[in-house]
TrEMBL record:
<dbReference type="GO" id="GO:0003887">
    <property type="term" value="F:DNA-directed DNA polymerase activity"/>
</dbReference>
<dbReference type="GO" id="GO:0006289">
    <property type="term" value="P:nucleotide-excision repair"/>
</dbReference>
<dbReference type="InterPro" id="IPR035901">
    <property type="entry name" value="GIY-YIG_endonuc_sf"/>
</dbReference>
<dbReference type="InterPro" id="IPR012337">
    <property type="entry name" value="RNaseH-like_sf"/>
</dbReference>
<dbReference type="InterPro" id="IPR050066">
    <property type="entry name" value="UvrABC_protein_C"/>
</dbReference>
<dbReference type="GO" id="GO:0004527">
    <property type="term" value="F:exonuclease activity"/>
</dbReference>
<dbReference type="InterPro" id="IPR006054">
    <property type="entry name" value="DnaQ"/>
</dbReference>
<dbReference type="InterPro" id="IPR013520">
    <property type="entry name" value="Ribonucl_H"/>
</dbReference>
<keyword id="KW-0378">Hydrolase</keyword>
<dbReference type="GO" id="GO:0003677">
    <property type="term" value="F:DNA binding"/>
</dbReference>
<feature type="domain" description="GIY-YIG">
    <location>
        <begin position="226"/>
        <end position="304"/>
    </location>
</feature>
<dbReference type="Pfam" id="PF00929">
    <property type="entry name" value="RNase_T"/>
</dbReference>
<keyword id="KW-0269">Exonuclease</keyword>
<protein>
    <submittedName>
        <fullName>DNA polymerase-3 subunit epsilon</fullName>
    </submittedName>
</protein>
<dbReference type="InterPro" id="IPR000305">
    <property type="entry name" value="GIY-YIG_endonuc"/>
</dbReference>
<dbReference type="GO" id="GO:0009380">
    <property type="term" value="C:excinuclease repair complex"/>
</dbReference>
<dbReference type="InterPro" id="IPR047296">
    <property type="entry name" value="GIY-YIG_UvrC_Cho"/>
</dbReference>
């Protein structure tokens, strides 16, 4: 009983009308007769409406309406309504207040509802009455979904009335047609039970255009919990097909079987799915993290993101006498300097090109000897490389000019590197070489993203433990125990209770996380970034830490606004955006991109 009650409650504790059973829903079944044509605020000649609930008629509303315009002869032939009958009838602006009051709090039902609703909305707009926006159920749309062509040749009101043996025959008079529609509605509601449609919300969604796969799999959303968690669509052989997360698992899974879900790959996935598994979580952060881990572990075929975290790459500054940049697959404890992680080799190479624009690192792959010389490449002849291959520069000088700026940028201040790239963009722009300037800008973006990301990750993953909490919507506390950037435990304390016992229990049962090399030794970069986003929310409170959570004072984060503007300029291909980087004396270098 409690579970049923919960499904009827909205977030504010009120009853959600969409969750009320069809037997307990109040319907106003309405029909209009008009002069024809498009809705323009007039043209209504007759209104008929019947209010029903649970199969019982609660009231009727019927009146002729003076449309204020001539009545076409074919309308008189069709309906039997004449201009003489309409002349003494009240105009629509006089009828609307009583009709809107009759509709109050009820679900509007009509056959081909968009037609009737269109006329009523236009009339309200013309005469200054607010449209109450009731929930609308279309019996014609319901019939298209619930009845087959073998049962009825078409979905006309007269055909359906005969099929359901209506006590009233449609006559193209508003009240008679509304009464016939009532019988059709009741017949359709009986039929909907076989489709597991029992609530108003289910009926409204059922009436929409959904695929056969969605309709046949709707039962997969039954009996799922209304809690934060992860849901897994599984195939007949139990393979995970798709993994997702939500603050309300049941509601989110149900949305896959509505007309709002139009993705072709999801439709294909639903065809293969035979069950949905729910993993309940303490709060949304745990759900997001579990989703990432499940996707990484199982690589579900219908998930597109986060599937292969092991494919990340790094930029490594080698430990040779004349260091160079190399794209590698793993972060090792070898004394080298690393930058990353990057999602692809292409992105890493783009960032490396940005480094080459700023500092004279050699770009060749030769293993250079301190004794024997190696023939120089074209870059040395162009002045783009100090030619360590020909011993034109000492290892000590090379380290200061080329290697040290990169090392400093990864763990401290990247200002000199960024300033050098911006200067190159300015030079190219001044020479009206805008395409080349845009290329260098893309390198700047890739490099800045990596620098900011790595320093943020490193600041958190250095901490052996951090405990944080934030208030949830029910008055309790969401608690997270984070170790070396990995979510080690999650819990939620009940409302009106002190969170300390829950917090202590979470720490005692938390996962043991060992430190390792690099900023993603214990968790994927995406997991740590999800945790960072949660920690940086204004309502999150740090409870305990085993050390200082700090970043370099003049680190990469101070260039976040520069990155944002560069990305915006790149997205719009705007060559007039000016970017600036400020040095210690607050002098600014402004550059046209």
């Amino acid at each position: 009983m409690q579970g049923t009650l919960d499904t009827l409650l909205s977030a504010d504790g009120s009853v959600d009308p969409a969750a009320v059973s069809l037997a307990d829903t109040t319907f106003v079944v309405l029909d209009l007769e008009t002069t024809g044509g498009a809705p323009d605020g007039g043209g209504i000649t007759e209104i008929g409406a019947v209010k029903v609930r649970g199969g019982q008629r609660l009231g009727e509303f019927g009146t002729l309406v003076n449309p204020g315009q001539p009545l076409p002869p074919f309308i008189t032939v069709l309906t039997g309504i004449t201009e003489a009958m309409l002349r003494p009838a009240p105009p629509i602006e006089t009828v609307l207040p009583a009709l809107l009051e009759f509709l109050r709090g009820a679900v509007l039902v009509a056959h081909n509802a968009p037609y009737d609703v269109g006329f009523l909305k236009a009339a309200c707009a013309r005469h200054g009455y607010p449209w109450p926006a009731p929930r609308v159920l279309d019996t014609a749309a319901l019939a298209r979904r619930a009845l087959t062509r073998d049962e009825v040749p078409n979905r006309k009101l007269g055909t359906l009335a005969r099929f359901f043996r209506s006590a009233v025959e449609p006559t193209h008079r508003a009240l008679d047609d509304a009464k016939a529609t009532v019988d059709v509605l009741h017949g359709l509601i009986e039929r909907l039970g076989s489709f597991r449609v029992h609530t108003l919300g289910d009926a409204i969604e059922f009436a929409k255009a959904i695929t056969p796969a969605q309709r046949s799999r709707r039962h997969l959303a039954d009996n799922l919990p209304h809690v934060p968690g992860v849901y897994i669509f599984r195939a007949a052989d139990d393979r995970p097909l798709y993994v997702g997360t939500s603050k309300d698992v049941a509601t989110r899974v149900r949305s896959y079987f509505t007309a709002a879900e139009k993705r072709a790959r999801i439709s294909e996935m639903l065809t293969a799915a035979v069950r949905v598994e729910a993993v309940e979580c303490a709060h949304s952060l745990e759900a997001e993290v579990r989703e990432l881990r499940l996707i990484a572990s199982h690589a579900p075929p219908y998930n597109r993101r986060s599937k292969y975290p092991e494919r990340m790459v790094w930029l490594k500054l080698t430990t040779e006498a004349y260091p160079r940049l190399s794209v590698v697959r793993r972060f090792a404890e070898d004394g080298a300097t690393y930058l990353g992680p990057f999602s692809s080799r292409r992105t890493a190479e783009l960032a490396a090109a940005g480094v080459y624009d700023a500092v004279p690192l050699r770009q060749c792959n030769h293993k250079l000897s301190l004794r024997a010389k190696t023939p120089a490449c074209a870059l040395a002849e162009l002045g783009r490389c100090p030619a360590p291959c020909e011993h034109e520069i000492t290892p000590q000088e090379y380290d200061v000019r080329a290697a040290l700026p990169f090392r400093t940028a990864t763990s401290g201040d990247p200002g000199p590197v960024i300033a050098a790239i911006l200067a190159r963009i300015e030079t190219l722009s001044d020479k009206q070489r805008y395409e080349e300037a845009a290329t260098v800008r893309s390198r700047l973006i890739a490099l800045l993203r990596a620098l900011i990301r790595m320093q943020r990750l490193d600041a958190l993953t250095r901490l052996p433990e951090m405990v944080a909490a934030r208030r949830d919507d029910k008055g309790g506390w969401e608690i997270a125990v984070i170790r070396h950037g990995r979510l080690a435990a999650a819990a939620t304390s009940p409302p009106r209770e002190h969170p300390r016992p829950t917090l202590d229990a979470a720490r005692l049962t938390a996962e043991t996380v060992l430190p390792g090399p690099g900023p993603v030794a214990a968790a994927s970069a995406e997991e740590t970034e999800r945790i960072l986003a949660w920690l940086e929310r204004v309502d999150t409170r740090l409870v305990e830490t085993s050390g200082d959570w700090v970043s370099p004072a003049r680190g990469a984060a101070r260039f976040t606004s520069l990155l944002t503007r560069a990305e915006a300029a790149a997205a719009t291909q705007d060559s007039t955006v000016r970017l600036s980087v400020t040095d210690r004396s607050d002098d600014a270098r402004s550059l046209r991109l």
